[in-house]
Design goal:
Elements (H helix, E strand, L loop, with lengths): L5 E5 L3 H12 L4 E4 L11 E4 L4 E4 L4 E3 L3 H9 L6 E2 L5 E6 L5 E5 L25 H8 L14 H15 L8 H10 L5 H4 L1 E4 L3 H15 L4 E2 L4 E7 L2 E7 L2 E4 L4 E5 L3 H7 L9 E10 L9 E5 L5 E5 L2 E6 L10 H16 L8 E11 L3 H5 L11 E3 L12 H15 L7
Parallel strand pairs: 1-2, 1-14, 2-10, 7-16, 14-20
Antiparallel strand pairs: 3-4, 5-9, 6-9, 7-8, 11-12, 12-13, 15-18, 15-19, 16-17, 17-18
Helix pairs in contact: 1-7, 1-11, 2-11
Bound molecules: flavin-adenine dinucleotide.
Length: 419
Amino acid sequence: MSGFARATIAGAGLAGLSAAVALRRAGVPVAISDSAAQAGGRCRSYHDAALGLTIDNGNHLVLAGNRAVADFRAAIGATTPLSGPAHADFAFADLRDGARWTVRMNDGAVPWWLFSRRRRVPGSRLVDYVPLARLLRAGRGRIDAVINPGGAVWDRLVEPVLLAALNTAPAESSAALAGKVLRETIGRGGRATRPMVAVPTLGAAFIDPALAWLTVHETPLSTGRRLRSITFDGDHVSALRWSDGTQTIGSDEAVILAVPPWVAASLVPDLSTPTEHRAIVNGHFAFPVARTMPAMLGLLGGTAEWIFTHPDRISVTVSAADPLVDRDREDLARAFWADICAALGIAAPMPAWQVVKEKRATFAATPEQDALRPPPGTRWRNLFLAGDWVASGLPATIEGALRSGDVAAALALGRPARY
Ligand SMILES: Cc1cc2nc3c(=O)[nH]c(=O)nc-3n(C[C@H](O)[C@H](O)[C@H](O)COP(=O)(O)OP(=O)(O)OC[C@H]3O[C@@H](n4cnc5c(N)ncnc54)[C@H](O)[C@@H]3O)c2cc1C
């Protein structure tokens, strides 16, 4: 199949940006628009007046084995490094009993760390990790049908890590989605599992260099421009109605819809999309961070689940946070600050704070919702879908969004596509 000569992209989150970059690299002229005032979608940074700081809407963790993250950043010439420990060390604190431990995976693919009591979860035995091998190979069903959700390894490692990766209670989550993430990270060893965060911000690590690269490649982004409807004509899309007028789509032009699932479902007839979502709540505190504080700490037994420290701020994340979204923001900030003080040994009044609630942060990573994800190609020959919710085998992550953009671009180019 030969590719399209031009492309229009609706949505400048990571999926839309990655599609735009892939198409431009192939020499295809692209126009990209987003309804919001800025690019980045769910992965964005902004100046927060309450804190007097530039912050991310939410802490985003990627793993060193995320190949699309590395490829995308290389393609756009991103120079701000992603920061993380030299090895796959995951530090935890249990606020209920003060216990602290660090799981230290070795770098190579042979997981000899499991044989070291000083590296694995305290109180665990080698045999306790055997069920994880089943999850690595899992093809269907819920996680709790593959491994028993209990015991030290589950409570102190598997559950907190999978909750962060899937943004859904791990027991009810899809074993296939978890298995895919684990195969590409833990399954390849500690080197691929090193956690990394954007420093100083997501904008600097992903969005700003992508926009700069696109501008240099004659693809400026149009913001505040909403796609309102699509005109379908037989087997193709023939027009797009934007908030500022109608665009005719020529027969040589591809359209990539890189909008959230509920928007796509309102624009495309009979489109199957995930319908259930999970929230993520983040708390941000303007606080000068001591060098001795960990960059990242998993918490058990508190309201917050992960603490991330940046030089000028401390942030916390709660995944699958639906029970928290209606809670008073200041009340949440106080609970988060109490957790931070207990975990990091801080004795200070609550500083300037911000709480960001993303109600539909990701689709619910259950087997049922995963089954609703559509393929990137549609029954219209020039319409392609991109987004972390499009069927990719991956959960809703930066990696999944970037790969889906790449795949949509490959289809528009008439090239083989692979997740
Ligand atoms: C708080 C939070 C924390 C997260 N943490 C992590 C993490 O730790 N690790 C990780 O890998 N992932 C994480 N994620 C998930 C990650 O952010 C997403 O998977 C990714 O950003 C999705 O990108 P996308 O391009 O698919 O969608 P989006 O970012 O939602 O982009 C869609 C874009 O479409 C635009 N749009 C909507 N309607 C229209 C319209 N009608 N016309 C034109 N444009 C439109 C929107 O404005 C938006 O910019 C997190 C998400 C959140 C919210």
